[in-house]
Amino acid sequence: MERHFTLGEFIIENQKDFPYAKGELSALLSSIKLAGKLVNQQINKAGLAEILGKIGKQNVQGEAQAKLDVIANDIFIDTFRNRGEVCGLGSEELEDVVIFDDEIHREAKYIILIDPLDGSSNIDVDITVGTIFSIYRRISEVGSPVTPEDFLQPGRNQVAAGYIIYGTSTILVYTSGNGVNGFTFDPGIGSFFLSHPNIKFPKKGNTYSINEGNYVHFPDGIKKYLKWVQELDEEEKRPFTSRYTGSLVADFHRNMLLGGIYLYPQGTTAPQGKLRLLYESNPMAFLTEQAGGKATNGSERILDIIPEELHQRIPFICGNKDMVEKAESFLSQF
Ligand code: AHM
Ligand code: MG
């Protein structure tokens, strides 16, 4: 691969024409890049450093926390505390938001929401995990302490969002509203290089990603849709292929590059599905739309939903536009 642009160079080049750009967003994205490298280093040596396994506690969602969940969370918080670009942070791992309330951070324009280690049930078995991030401009006045409203903005207000996928390569993928670009980490040099410029969902997809073990709990529309994707139709290349890792970042990344649909619908045991609006669905929905796809809760555009609480869950369907619309049509009929 020819190495034309590092992520650092790309961010500066890409942000310079931004209406509000004064370098803070570029610096913020650089902080994510740094924290991502630190998390990547921990993940790579996890099996040797005795940092696999659970810590014996549950997070605010009632899920068992893995040691690496906590390590990744701390790395991101420390990185932002040590720098001055965000005035507050919300994390899937923490009940309350972190408010950086000192002179420097109070002057910051941005807040960040993170899922520090998504797919953490996969950590101990060496399957791909990721970090998801979502950035908003604060609503409250710069110079004052950050408020709850700053964190509960609809996804369409996102200034930037993205993920780092710790897979066969480590890749940082982000959008700041001007397309989606991916940067592969070269561990020898310690830099991310532009490797996936202007990512778009391919015109046609034929992969579906869903935890089909929950079938009996799904709404009828989803059950009927699943039967439809499994029917024989040579012209439409059905049955589709099923691929599901249990890491949203990995399933999303594959579907965006190769074409496909990801679904985590509501079920009788999980009335709002599993995924969190602020830490997972909104950033993935922003990326989806910027890559030419569609993201919905089954009837509403994800990015238009007004969040009511920090850890709100939401049914989530995203991917190629035509595939998502087909799923929506089943949901509206049954
Ligand atoms: P996590 O953030 O606690 O890892 O949970 C989110 C993950 C997604 O990455 C993944 O798509 C989903 O949960 C898998 O859930 P399930 O095991 O119910 O299929
Ligand atoms: Mg997650």
Residue share in β-strands: 15-25%
Strand order of the largest sheet: 4-3-5-6-7-8-9-10
- Radius of gyration, in Å, reads 19 Å
**Number of helical elements:** 9
Structural class, judged by helices and strands? Answer: alpha+beta
Poorly predicted tracts of residues:
none
Q: In whole angstroms, how far apart are the ends? A: 49 Å
What coarse outline follows from CA principal-axis ratios?
Answer: globular
Biggest sheet statistics: 8 strands, mixed
Helix content: 25-40%
Ligand names:
2,5-anhydro-1,6-di-O-phosphono-D-mannitol, magnesium ion
H/E topology pattern? HHEEHEEHEEHEEEEEHEHEHEEH
Number of strands: 15
Mean pLDDT, as a whole number? 92
Q: What does this 3D model show about the protein?
A:
- There is one protein chain.
- The protein has 334 residues and is α+β, with helices and mostly antiparallel strands.
- Helix content is 31%, strand content 23%.
- The chain has helices spanning 7-15, 24-44, 67-82, 103-106, 148-151, 220-229, 248-258, 277-290, 321-333; strands spanning 54-58, 64-66, 86-91, 98-99, 110-118, 129-137, 158-166, 170-175, 180-186, 191-196, 207-209, 241-242, 261-264, 294-296, 316-319.
- Strands 4-3-5-6-7-8-9-10 form an eight-stranded mixed sheet, with helices on both faces. The protein has a five-stranded mixed sheet with strand order 12-11-13-15-14, with helices on both faces. A two-stranded antiparallel ribbon has the order 1-2.
- The N and C termini lie far apart (49 Å).
- The mean pLDDT is 92.
- The site of magnesium ion has 4 residues, from strand 5.
